[in-house]
């Protein structure tokens, strides 16, 4: 069991590093967060409105409306502007907790995968060789690690 935990921890670190590098380095999210010179004015208006923290989709009908009223509202919004607003009252640049959550999610994913795929006492582990590539007697084999 300690071997499985160790391999899961090592795998979680590798997976976490891959996820970090593939998301942070190329900056794929650049287009999703464009700068606007009107940001101070917009933030001031939102703060003055007394809006609660949260994520809002602007341009959708009130959930209390009937289905027909919602349909009419959606038809009236056709071609009009809409927005997604993710509002926080204070800016925090701390990435400690999101990174801890990320590594824990990677670890939980890997330990559950290792436990699900590992043979039990009732089942026989894979001990036979599976040829991957070869010519003549120079075979490379894949053996089960678990």
Q: What would you say this structure looks like, in words?
A:
- The strands form two sheets. The protein has a two-stranded antiparallel sheet. A two-stranded antiparallel ribbon has the order 3-4.
- Helices cover 45% and strands 14% of the residues.
- It is α+β, with helices and mostly antiparallel strands and 146 residues long.
- It has helices at 2-24, 39-49, 67-76, 96-117, and strands spanning 54-58, 83-87, 130-135, 138-142.
- The protein has four helices and four strands, in the order ααβαβαββ.
Identify the notable features of this structure and list them briefly.
single chain, about 150 residues, alpha+beta, two-stranded antiparallel ribbon, about 15% strand, elongated, disordered C terminus
Gyration radius, to the nearest Å? 26 Å
**Number of distinct beta strands:** 4
Low-confidence stretches: 127-132, 134-146
Structural class: alpha+beta
How would you spell out the order of helices and strands?
HHEHEHEE
Count of alpha and pi helical runs? 4
Largest sheet: 2 strands, antiparallel
The general outline is: elongated
Overall helicity? 40-55%
- Which percent range describes the beta-strand content? 5-15%
Average pLDDT for all residues:
80
First and last CA, distance? 11 Å
User: Which sequence of strands runs across the widest sheet?
Assistant: 1-2
């Amino acid at each position: 069991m300690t071997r499985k935990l160790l391999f899961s921890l090592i795998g979680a670190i590798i997976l976490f590093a891959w996820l970090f590098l593939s998301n942070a380095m190329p900056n794929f999210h650049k287009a999703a967060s464009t700068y606007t010179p009107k940001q101070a004015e917009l933030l001031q208006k939102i703060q003055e409105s007394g809006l609660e923290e949260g994520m809002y989709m602007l341009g959708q009908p009130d959930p209390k409306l009937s289905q027909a009223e919602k349909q009419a509202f959606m038809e009236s919004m056709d071609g009009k502007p809409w927005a997604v607003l993710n509002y926080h009252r204070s800016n925090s640049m701390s990435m400690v907790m999101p990174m801890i959550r990320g590594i824990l999610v990677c670890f939980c994913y890997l330990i559950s995968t290792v436990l699900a795929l590992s043979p039990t006492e009732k089942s026989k582990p894979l001990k036979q060789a599976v040829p991957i590539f070869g010519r003549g007697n120079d075979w490379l084999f894949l053996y089960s690690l678990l």
